[in-house]
Amino acid sequence: MKRYFVLAVCLALFAGAIFAATKQQKRAKAQKRLENCGTVMQEILNIPDDLPQLVLAKAECVVVFPSVLKLAFGMGKDYGRGAMVCRTGKNFNGPWGAPAMYALEGDSLGMQIGGESTDLILLVMNQRGAASILSSKIKLGGDASAAAGPKGRDASANTDLWMRAEILSYSRSRGLFAGISLEGSTLRPDNKANARIYGRKISAKAILLGNKVAIPAAGRHLVRVLQANAPRNESNQVASR
What we know:
This protein is α+β, with helices and mostly antiparallel strands and 241 residues long. Helices cover 44% and strands 21% of the residues. Residues 71-76 and 237-241 have low confidence and may be disordered. The radius of gyration is 20 Å and the shape is globular. Strands 1, 2, 3, 4, 5, 6, 7, 8 and 9 form a nine-stranded mixed beta sheet that branches. Helix 1 crosses helix 7 (191-198) and helix 1 (2-45) packs parallel to helix 9 (220-229). The chain has one domain (33-233). It has helices at residues 2-45, 53-56, 107-113, 127-135, 154-157, 159-164, 191-198, 204-209, 220-229, 234-240; strands spanning 61-68, 78-86, 100-106, 118-124, 138-139, 146-148, 167-173, 176-179, 186-189.
């Protein structure tokens, strides 16, 4: 009897160790993904013609999805995992705040990116678009209007076009950068990843709008890159004149 008791204790300890190791592994994976968001954003902004400064300067929030993948046939929807960062303040006129983890899913996504690993950037251009994303899971093109973002000289030439969209989307694959249509794809908070990043259950809305959440170490690079390249919300300045 005593032998069985010792065996049960050993098995419980072993199971606990496996659980703890798995939990730590998942947390490290989420942290690495958040770090990659900063790397992707920096690389894209290092080439000014890719993501025009005047467009980023008018964004309320930015969502970065590094290495979006198309799953093999029969394995379900295509997906991406990344992070969203918003400007702080009631009117999104403050410095960039803490990032929240998000997921992008959709059947049309695979048609856009093919079989390649693709980096995606979404720019949320107004408060209505931000409110839609922060409220719940949304469908791009349905719950929030989405359009392929302008690049280079097209940004100034088609100002009226992109100013009407709530979300502008961009993609980078094999070094090529272009606007991309993700209409029909869904965007939702990645609650499990947020819990792993912040060490507790917390909603994306509380992270992005609460202004009381410290920026985690893994997200500091992403926030620094955005703050350095778009420190002020130019859309608010224009609206207030």
